[in-house]
From TrEMBL:
Residues 1-193 form the Mannitol dehydrogenase N-terminal domain. Keywords: NAD, Oxidoreductase. InterPro entries: 6-PGluconate_DH-like_C_sf (IPR008927), 6PGD_dom2 (IPR013328), Mannitol_1_phos_5_DH (IPR023028), Mannitol_DH (IPR000669), Mannitol_DH_C (IPR013118), Mannitol_DH_N (IPR013131), NAD(P)-bd_dom_sf (IPR036291). NAD(+) binds at residues 3-14. Pfam families: Mannitol_dh (PF01232), Mannitol_dh_C (PF08125). Belongs to the mannitol dehydrogenase family. Its EC number is 1.1.1.17. PANTHER family: ALTRONATE OXIDOREDUCTASE-RELATED, MANNITOL-1-PHOSPHATE 5-DEHYDROGENASE. Signal peptide: none annotated. It is an enzyme of class 1 (oxidoreductase). This is Mannitol-1-phosphate 5-dehydrogenase. It comes from Nesterenkonia aethiopica. Residues 201-343 form the Mannitol dehydrogenase C-terminal domain. The lineage of its organism: Bacteria, Bacillati, Actinomycetota, Actinomycetes, Micrococcales.
Amino acid sequence: MKAVHFGAGNIGRGFVGLLLHEGGYEVVFSDVVAPLVQALDAAESYTVHEVGDGGTDRVVDGFRAVDSAQSPEAVAEEVATAEVVTTAVGPMILKHIAPHVVAGLRRRAADAPPLQVMACENAIGATDTLAGHMREHAGADWEELSARAVFANTAVDRIVPGQPEGAGLDVTVEPFYEWAIERGPFGENPPHIPGAHFVDDLGPYIERKLFTVNTGHAAAAYLGYRAGAGTIAEALGDEAVGSGVAAALEETSALLVAKHGFAAEDMASYRETILGRFRNPALPDTVQRVGRQPLRKLSRHERLIGPASQAVEQGLGAEALLAVVDAALDFRDADDEQANQLEGLLADLPPRDFVEQVTGLEADHPLAGPVEELVARRRG
Ligand SMILES: NC(=O)C1=CN([C@@H]2O[C@H](COP(=O)(O)OP(=O)(O)OC[C@H]3O[C@@H](n4cnc5c(N)ncnc54)[C@H](O)[C@@H]3O)[C@@H](O)[C@H]2O)C=CC1
Ligand SMILES: O=P(O)(O)OC[C@H]1O[C@](O)(CO)[C@@H](O)[C@@H]1O
């Protein structure tokens, strides 16, 4: 069995590639960073170091790597003969992956089992997004090509921080992980990934994950950045940051209970588990990494505006989430293109235009006014 995985970065090597390997797949990593591809192709193995309680070392071997920028034909050939395609490249990169998967489907034998495609990104419906880009790319051939694949959305959860210089291909990760995958698209033949779980309706799972793990993480990053913390563990050591994060998560939990019927006590223990993961002192996770790409994180259906807008629509509170949005507006990182753009947009756009362009909130949405006030305050 072969899996082609696009994106040999932190989560690609430290989670998706690891679990595919443990499921018995030969993993073919595809990336655009030539030195990374060369290092992977030359290596016999790498080690995933799980740090913190219960952590252990896991060795991944039997993989290969191809450079999708240099050798698109070779990538198409690998996809044509694979059972599984996964991605962990970032939601905005999926449009660049689509042509490779389409090219692979064009070459796929007519009697081959359908290619199982799963995008593993922090976004709702990421596989649908990839399939949408593939449809655009395939044009009139889409009906025929799409019959050669099945598409399942997934929710992936494992904290894989940026890796220290000199770590090579090894990856340091937290021991916890969760990979929830839609069951329906596979019929009787789900992929063999021990440790993943298959669910009939991914919607509640992915919202619970995105609006708890990722909202809480973003809250720790933005409130922590404002408080001068360097890492997420340090941020949560600050009492005011800790209570700001906890309050934001109480608001998202109230929404998830109301919307999906999760039990309030289950949400309370889910929150505690997650806050414990964030506090893992062995995990060198920076506020810059977790707060990266603030424009994406402030967009309409993402981890801050997404739950806050739904909460106010339901008559629930969103004050603590708004306080996190306020802190996100102050997030700066000279190395982060979106953080620089954010600073420019705050200076250039009238508050109402900023709200419309950055958050996507409709002018008559009840959250638009409060966010506009936060922006206006910065204009003096
Ligand atoms: N790091 C984590 O703990 C988690 C990350 N995720 C999601 O996984 C995705 C990747 O995140 P990370 O691994 O942290 O980022 P990363 O930056 O470490 O890895 C992304 C990889 O994608 C590669 N890439 C970029 N453009 C590409 C292209 N056109 N074709 C092939 N490869 C390309 C990059 O060179 C890089 O190696 C994001 O959507 C993130 O939200 C999800 C859960 C956990
Ligand atoms: O990967 P993103 O979407 O930029 O956000 C960072 C977040 O994703 C994770 O990498 C994994 O869920 C978290 O560490 C963090 O909440």
